[in-house]
Amino acid sequence: MVETDFLGAAAALADDAVERLVGYARQETPTGAAAALDALADVLQVRYRELGARTERVPHETGDHLVARWGGGAGDGDAPHVLLLGHHDTVWPTGTLGSMPVAAEDGVLRGPGVYDMKGGLVVAELAFEVLRRSGAAPARPVRLVVVADEEVGSPTARPLVEEQMAGAVAVLGLESPHPGGALKSARLGSTRVRIEVAGRAAHAALDPESGVSAVDELVDQLFAVREIMAAEPTVLCNVGTVAGGGRTNVVPDARAPTSGCGSPTPPPRTACWVRSGGSPPCARAPR
Q: Rounded CA gap, 109 and 64, in Å?
């Protein structure tokens, strides 16, 4: 008899899904670690083929992207399809498992990449496994795109995603839900910005008056950026890295932070950076 109780079928596969998620999370895949990303892509590709998909690897030096197709025949072309989006890179650096091992406690699985977003990849697999065991198939062709650089804004994957969007009747992101289980219906756009500050080097003990500290200026500029962002409640801004300077006894002449900015639409994000880019120096004289 054909099983049509999809929820029941999914519940019966829950332990297997958790086991797969544990395995995926134990394969550390930070963005840019091509060998590690490709190793997990190998595993995913085998799994998708087991689930009846035709797969395609899109090679890139920072990690391969993966496309899986169900239904529609080998030449589905522009036939209307549902597009699923996912990624197998994470923000966690190699070695994180040493301090954050994958572990289940009180019904919650924790570990690097479990929530963002290897859990979403397992959910997609679970859905296709349920369909397979139920003797059912999607009403439309389905494509799944798994990219290797989502955490840094998909610089190499964007053309692939745009290509696969052509002809899609719906696009579903596999990111984990909001607290409480609410479905995420959209994603923030993102921008990376580098702010460079120039000062004047001088000996910090013998001739400090001749110097202009790029570090002091940078701190002032970041306070100015914070004020700009406070006026834009829909924009998220994070100063992720700061680099520059040299010796502790030298007034630093250069400093640069890199910031990540996210917002639901381009206009407020663009306005923020136009305003911050036009900020005058806060340090008018040597100090």
A: 27
